[in-house]
Design brief:
Layout lengths: L7 E6 L8 H10 L3 E6 L9 H8 L21 H8 L2 E7 L1 H9 L5 H8 L4 E5 L3 H5 L1 H12 L3 E2 L3 E4 L5 E5 L3 H14 L8 E6 L4 E2 L5 E2 L6 H12 L3 E6 L11 E4 L3 H12 L4 E4 L6 E3 L21 E3 L3 H7 L5 E7 L4 H11 L4 E5 L12 E2 L1 E5 L4 E3 L3 E2 H15 L5
Parallel strand pairs: 1-2, 1-3, 3-4, 4-5, 8-11, 8-13, 11-12, 13-16, 16-17
Antiparallel strand pairs: 6-7, 9-10, 14-15, 17-19, 18-21, 19-20
Helix pairs in contact: 1-2, 1-8, 3-5, 4-7, 9-13
Bound molecules: cytidine-5'-monophosphate.
Cytidine-5'-monophosphate (C5P) binds next to helix 11 and strand 16.
């Protein structure tokens, strides 16, 4: 695991009840060797005193932009600019709806928001608020815009909120936030510079008639995390996505497809020029033999049964493997029984360099989860299990393996 020794991290704390949990974040960051500068909004000081964070971070906490006595010189006058250059990463946790709105439009009305504008490194935000504020269109649009600008948004956890309501809005466990911070800083190695990486993500949809399809429950999050991580490491990334409503990681080229055949065409058309193909998509194995031109009526389908004849879809990975020259091939295996055996067989049959095994029944690895629990199996069939990690960090572990498989740069 990478540590944070010598890393400069700004922890921004805004005015939400979860501010008390930020104390644990300061403690964990300092424990891992980071130098932590805490910056609070004035509202945050209503929840927790700056003294708590100053003690834990062993640095004065910055709240105000201007000196208490107007006109007095202050060492902090240009501190937001200096800190913007100093920081390897800024994390705002908790991030209120108000601060998120301000940073979306580029307001600079307090020290923290001014610092965000002066920041050169990556910005991570952990939105934390009541469920209705979080789900409000204004907040969701702001988050979508921030994501588009490359801001890392750590999704809030669902559960009981301070208001007594239940839903998304809780600050995730500090361990999850720490994993994201580590992953982003690890990702800044740029060890995939100049490499062309092709990633597939999400489900496929096989039409039955104009309104129905055969699909699956893949959320696409693992593939999108892989694309994000590969961009961060300097790769040129094409993300071939099945039908999912996820924001495109900034810097990745996205190609939207629907059926397995469309995905196959999109992959094979780009395969020759790529260095790495990662098939994280859950490609449908079967497709209806014929697509009805108009909606199949209940009456027409017969009494109690409807039979849809299906044919097998082409296997994208197998086809790619037959055409490979230098490419590294990574596949996923979703197994519920005898996972290791099946994954090893699949890796050999599909001639893959690496297979990523996961079991959706394991806690934290379900469809749509922010985290995953996987085992990596390489060319020598050795199985390396990884602990429960955010998908972005799982992505970096996979890319660490890919980097070692690539031929050395000349
Ligand atoms: O055989 P299975 O579907 O379990 O293999 C999973 C791996 O193969 C995944 O990486 C998936 O993206 C890929 N796959 C494919 N073409 C298919 C089916 C699966 O490339 N038709």
């Amino acid at each position: 695991m990478p540590t944070l020794t010598g890393r400069h991290i700004i922890l921004g704390i805004t005015g939400g009840i979860a501010a008390y949990k930020s104390a644990l974040l300061v403690r964990d960051l300092v424990r891992e060797g980071a130098e932590v500068q805490v910056v609070m909004t004035p509202a945050a000081t209503q929840f927790v005193t700056p003294l708590t964070f100053a003690t834990l971070s062993r640095r004065d906490v910055i709240v105000e932009m201007f000196p208490a006595t107007p006109g007095q010189p202050t060492a902090q006058w240009t501190a937001h600019i200096d800190l913007g250059v100093w920081a390897d990463l800024m994390l705002i946790a908790p991030a209120t709806a108000n601060t998120l709105a301000k940073i979306t439009v580029g307001m600079a009305d307090n020290f923290l928001t001014s610092l965000v504008l002066a920041l050169r490194g990556p910005l991570v935000v952990a939105p934390t608020m009541d469920v209705d504020m979080y789900q409000h269109t204004a907040t969701q649009r702001n988050l979508a815009l921030l994501r588009e600008r490359g801001v890392h948004v750590i999704e809030p956890e669902s559960g009981e909120l301070a208001s007594g309501l239940t839903g998304p809005g809780r600050l995730p466990d500090p361990a999850i936030i720490m994993d994201v911070v580590r992953a982003i800083l690890a990702g800044r190695k740029r060890d995939l510079e100049g490499k062309q990486v092709l990633v597939t993500a999400g489900p496929t949809q096989e039409p039955i008639d104009p309104v129905r399809y055969i699909g699956n429950r893949s959320s696409g999050k693992m593939g999108f995390a892989l694309a994000e991580a590969a961009v961060a490491r300097g790769a040129r990334v094409t993300l071939i996505a099945g039908p999912v409503h996820l924001p495109t990681p900034s810097g990745a080229d996205r190609v939207d497809v629907s059926t397995a055949q469309e995905m196959m065409d999109a992959v094979l058309g780009r395969f020759e020029n790529c260095d790495v193909l990662i098939m994280a998509a859950a490609v449908g194995d079967f497709t209806p033999a014929a697509v009805a031109q108009s909606k199949i009526k209940r009456e027409k389908a017969g009494a109690a049964h409807l039979t849809i004849e299906c044919v097998q879809n082409p296997d994208i990975l197998r086809t790619a493997a037959e055409r490979r020259s230098r490419q590294i091939l990574v596949g996923f295996a979703l197994e519920t029984d005898n996972g290791l055996t099946h994954a090893r067989e699949k890796r050999t049959a599909k001639k893959l360099d690496l297979i990523v095994l996961n079991d959706p029944r394991v806690e934290g690895a379900a469809f749509g989860a922010e985290t995953n629990v996987v085992t990596l199996i390489g060319r020598d069939d050795t199985a390396t299990p990884l602990p429960l990690l955010p998908k972005l960090e799982v992505a970096h572990h996979i890319l660490d393996r890919v980097v070692h498989l690539l031929p050395p740069a000349r």
